[in-house]
Amino acid sequence: MFPPNQYVPQCVTDRRPLLMWLFVAGGALLFSVLLIAAPLAQANGSQWFSFAVYEAFSHLCHQTAERSFFIAGHPFAVCTRCTGLYAGFAVAVALYPLLTSLKRTYTPERKWLFIAAAPLAIDFAVGFLGIWQNTHFSRFSTGAILGAATVFFVMPGLVQLSLYPRLLAPRLVKQSEHKAYYSPTTWEQQLTATPSDYSEPLRRI
Fold first, then answer.
1. DSSP assignment letter at 156
2. Is residue 173 in a domain?
3. CB burial class (10 A; 0-12, 13-18, 19+) of residue 52?
């Protein structure tokens, strides 16, 4: 028995899911800030910064001014629908620890992702077909719904990825036990083993 001061606790809190959440939340917040930072920088004369941000987001969005929010007389770095996607994702990530466990590694049923995407698809379809003219609010809100729902499908996978070495641990233990059980006898064990006495058969009975 070891003295109490040498006791080693068997349960250790794994901080990897928390670190993964902080990383994703920080990235989502950075994206959301850049959407507004680009027009503000252009309004304040920081052309190089605003150009870099607009150019980076141009690969993700059409950036049509008529379909974008404005601040300081300049459009956001992305359109209203993409703004909703980023904003909804950022808000849902920020609230994620309050809504579910950070150690969750399973996703909801796939049908919920299609249900969340349905309002966006309908809003896009009625506008594209000329049935009804969608607005900034409809584009932003439908994008925010899908962006928020995406978090519950993305975060469990990222948490599982952060725990990947631990998931392999049981398999590695089984392999090591298998190798130890079937490991051949070493030469040292053979040399030190007691030899069989074949000179006196009666002693072996």
1. H
2. no
3. middle
Q: Alpha-carbon Rg of the chain, whole angstroms?
A: 30
Domain that holds residue 58: 15-165
Token output for 125: 């379809």
pTM to 2 decimal places:
0.73
Between CA 189 and CA 137 the distance in angstroms is 79
Q: What is the mean pLDDT of residues 137-162?
A: 95
C-alpha dihedral, 150 to 155 to 161 to 163, nearest 10°: -160
Look at residues 163, 166, 151 and name the one whose alpha carbon lies nearest to residue 100: 151
**Is the residue at 182 inside a domain?**
no
Domain total for the chain?
Answer: 1
State mean pLDDT over 130-158: 94
Supply angle C-alpha 155, 160, 161, rounded to 5.
95
DSSP designation for 65: G
Task: Convert 163-178 to b/e letters by CB count within 10 Å (16 or more is b).
Answer: beeeeeeeeeeeeeee
Q: Distance of alpha carbon 134 from its chain centroid, rounded?
A: 32
- Residues whose CB falls within 8 Å of the CB of residue 178, separated by 6 or more in sequence, listed in order: none
